[in-house]
Design brief:
CATH class of the largest domain: Alpha Beta
Radius of gyration: 20 Å
CATH superfamily of the largest domain: Metal-dependent hydrolases
Number of strands: 21
Helix content: 25-40%
CATH architecture of the largest domain: Alpha-Beta Barrel
Shape: globular
Length: 375
């Protein structure tokens, strides 16, 4: 199949009048051409599909409340309309039974080649009580052999685990990394020194930078200071103007570069649905505009989608279009180790792409060369 793109961002530069040829779900060629030579015209800016490494829910479904393959299908469809072609469904801190069921659902999704689900993100349960956010206190605990066995399963695709390094020894972090687990630091009150030791042990990233972590202060750099200073680690950033101040977002991008900042949604079930209230672990999570809170006003995940995250990064943070799209595509692809197959439009890469309008909204979403969403 041959597609004509008047404008195409391949991950490096925006090119005009390109013909992209797709075979068996892969890009086989991209070259200059005319629309008359193609089978289909793509009207708008063609970009790589977005990759979201922190997705708790969508389409009215929260993964914790429904840890099964049907929930993953609903979440995938909900986020595809906002440009997410690849995701790590994310399980918030829960009991061992729910964690095991979530693992089985992910295994089924990968075995069945479900488009968009490439692994799982276990956000907890080995977190810090003072920085728990909405993570249920009764389930926060030290790591056991059961959890280690789950995290190191080899049939779950990409496994990411968010943990607080003050509560998980460095030798356990080394063990996880040795078993190909992506260790992220977050929901933590760790000192700068504890954070740097965890990075030395192999931790590769930080979960929602600034939120639920020890802050940067004059006499204590904290986890935020370590995250901003270290050049190799990746940081998720929620650009919804609720979680992080715009200047702080700009500072993070300036310190880390777009090659290390990943746009994430931290989306709850509200995204892609008209849901207002969600029940989770005895809490009511209520949507008011773009903000999700529990009683008392504490933030509880987000109602952000990836299309809005990209648009906010361009229009409110002043990032160039190319940089913003890479933070939603190639940078997270690099983090999950898929930088040779996802996050770029290039020969041999997966045919996952979007067609954006002039307001950066998604008109069409393609996964493996198949249109999965059309506005």
């Amino acid at each position: 199949m041959r597609y004509f793109a008047p404008q195409l961002f391949d991950g490096k530069s925006i090119k005009t009048n390109q013909i992209m040829t797709i075979e068996n779900g892969l890009i086989t060629s991209i070259s200059p051409g005319q629309d008359s030579e193609a089978d289909t015209l793509l009207k708008g800016l063609v970009t790589p599909g977005y990759i979201d490494v922190q997705v708790n829910g969508g389409g009215g479904v929260l993964f914790n409340n429904q840890p099964n393959i049907e929930a993953l299908q609903t979440m995938s469809r909900a986020h595809q309309q906002f440009g997410t072609t690849t995701m790590l469904p994310t399980l918030i801190t829960d009991d061992m039974e729910i964690m095991a069921r979530a693992g089985e659902a992910i295994q089924q999704a990968i075995y069945n080649n479900m488009p968009s689900v490439v692994g799982v993100h276990f956000e907890g349960p080995h977190l810090s009580q003072p920085k728990k956010g909405i993570h249920p206190e009764q389930h926060i605990r030290h790591i056991s052999d059961q959890e280690l066995a789950l995290f190191t399963r080899q049939d779950l695709g990409v496994v990411c685990v968010t943990l607080a390094p003050e509560n998980v020894p460095c030798d356990i972090i080394k063990e996880l990394v040795k078993n190909n687990v992506k260790v992220c630091l977050g929901h933590s009150n760790a000192s700068y020194e504890q954070t740097m030791l965890a990075i030395e042990a192999g931790a590769q990233g930080f979960t929602h930078l600034y939120n639920a972590m020890s802050p940067l202060q004059s006499r204590e750099a904290g986890m935020v200071g370590a995250a901003l200073l270290d050049d190799q680690t990746f940081c998720g950033l929620i650009v919804d103007h609720e979680h992080v101040d715009s200047a702080s977002c700009q500072l993070a991008i300036k310190c880390k570069s777009s090659e290390r900042i990943m746009l994430v949604t931290d989306a709850m079930s509200h995204v892609g649905s008209d849901q207002i209230k969600l029940q989770f672990s005895g809490m009511d999570i209520t949507r008011d505009g773009n903000k999700l809170t529990i009683e008392g006003g504490r933030l509880a995940g987000s109602a952000l989608d990836m299309a809005s995250a990209v648009k906010n990064t361009i229009t409110h943070l002043g990032s160039p279009i190319e940089q913003a799209i890479n933070m939603a595509s190639f940078t997270p692809a690099n983090f999950i180790g898929r930088q040779k197959s996802k996050g770029r439009l290039s020969v041999g890469f997966d045919a996952d792409w979007l067609v954006l309008d002039e307001n950066f909204q998604v008109n069409k979403t393609f996964i493996a060369g198949q249109c999965v969403y059309s506005n």
